[in-house]
């Protein structure tokens, strides 16, 4: 049997709400040379039954139960099962644009690159929390390719993770560092560029992300981020592989008023920018608290 072009690895921990959408968005792709590998990491909901149902119906879908406790471990489990030329790391709470694989294949065939960064954008916001995140993402992603939506060559200073990589390269790099919690994708991208490989940002290779709907969910993310910052600091003598070089720059942030003014100017969305400044302040305080006092 011919090996697929893409191996799409989906780590899932209690993702019964989003997993069907993630899988369905892949099944309708115009590019059909792919396999889906679902790694069920300590699931206690109906995620396992969902994966079983799809694997019985489609011969290019497989699943495996794992007990890793982290996205890094789950993804490494998927890498070992992968057969494709390229691996795609796709979160269970995301879904693909219908031509993502087709457009990704064109980039990978037309340019001398080893990997590709997808354009992550948000679903239509359902409340003020999702609109706040959408405003932030619009500045970070949409403006990355503001002039003509041109594809851009990346380097280790670009701040964009490479979500599609040649499988042989991922194996040479040793996969994800399982000692890292939450920032494992930043670390793999950094090692990818340090090893001399090339990647591009593909503006037409689009993933949609389901952002948290409640403050409880959003603050839960902050706890995970703080845990990741603390673990990252402990194993690298203080060097963090994140956008900020030291934890304090992440969890103290900028006063909300300045965040509001900056984003209002950049995005031209005054209401969304106000929402983001409020969420930024709350999340900064939560990350600071968990970083200093959290028990993990």
Q: Explain this structure to me?
A:
With 296 residues, the chain is α/β, with parallel strands linked by helices. It folds into two domains: 6-209, Spore Coat Polysaccharide Biosynthesis Protein SpsA, Chain A (Alpha-Beta Complex), CATH 3.90.550; 215-293, no CATH class. Helix content is 45%, strand content 18%. The protein has helices at residues 19-27, 47-57, 71-81, 100-110, 128-140, 167-172, 184-194, 215-235, 247-251, 256-267, 270-293, and strands at 6-12, 34-41, 61-66, 86-89, 94-96, 115-122, 152-153, 164-166, 199-209. Strands 1, 2, 3, 4, 5, 6, 7, 8 and 9 form a nine-stranded mixed beta sheet that branches. Strand 2 (34-41), helix 2 (47-57) and strand 3 form a beta-alpha-beta unit.
Helix content: 40-55%
Overall mean pLDDT stands at 87
Rg, alpha carbons: 19 Å
CATH topology of the largest domain: Spore Coat Polysaccharide Biosynthesis Protein SpsA, Chain A
Helix/strand layout:
Elements: E1 6-12, H1 19-27, E2 34-41, H2 47-57, E3 61-66, H3 71-81, E4 86-89, E5 94-96, H4 100-110, E6 115-122, H5 128-140, E7 152-153, E8 164-166, H6 167-172, H7 184-194, E9 199-209, H8 215-235, H9 247-251, H10 256-267, H11 270-293
Parallel strand pairs: 1-2, 1-4, 2-3, 6-9
Antiparallel strand pairs: 4-8, 5-9, 6-8, 7-9
């Amino acid at each position: 049997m011919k090996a697929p072009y893409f191996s799409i690895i989906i780590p899932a921990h209690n993702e019964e709400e989003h997993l069907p959408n993630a899988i369905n968005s892949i099944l309708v792709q115009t590019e059909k040379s792919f396999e889906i590998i679902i790694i069920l990491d300590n699931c206690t909901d109906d995620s396992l039954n969902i994966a079983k149902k799809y694997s019985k119906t489609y011969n290019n879908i497989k699943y495996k139960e794992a007990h890793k406790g982290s996205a890094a471990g789950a993804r490494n489990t998927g890498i070992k099962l992968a057969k494709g030329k390229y691996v795609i790391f796709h979160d269970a709470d995301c879904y693909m644009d219908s031509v993502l694989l087709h457009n990704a294949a064109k980039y990978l065939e037309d340019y001398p690159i080893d990997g590709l960064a997808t354009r992550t954008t948000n679903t239509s916001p359902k409340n003020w929390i999702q609109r706040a995140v959408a405003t932030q993402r619009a500045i970070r992603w949409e403006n990355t390719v503001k002039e003509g939506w041109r594809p851009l060559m990346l380097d280790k200073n670009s701040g964009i993770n490479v979500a599609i990589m040649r499988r042989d390269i991922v194996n040479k790099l040793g996969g994800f560092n399982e000692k890292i919690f939450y920032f494992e994708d930043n670390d793999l991208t950094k090692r990818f560029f340090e090893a001399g490989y090339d990647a591009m940002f593909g503006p037409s290779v689009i993933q949609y992300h389901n952002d948290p709907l409640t403050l409880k969910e959003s603050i839960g993310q902050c706890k995970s981020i703080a845990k990741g910052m603390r673990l990252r600091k402990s194993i690298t003598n203080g060097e963090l592989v994140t956008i900020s070089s030291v934890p304090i720059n992440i969890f103290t942030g900028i006063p909300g008023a300045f965040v509001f003014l900056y984003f209002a100017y950049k995005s031209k969305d005054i209401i969304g920018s106000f929402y983001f400044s409020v969420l930024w302040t709350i999340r900064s305080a939560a990350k600071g608290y968990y970083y200093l006092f959290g028990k993990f």
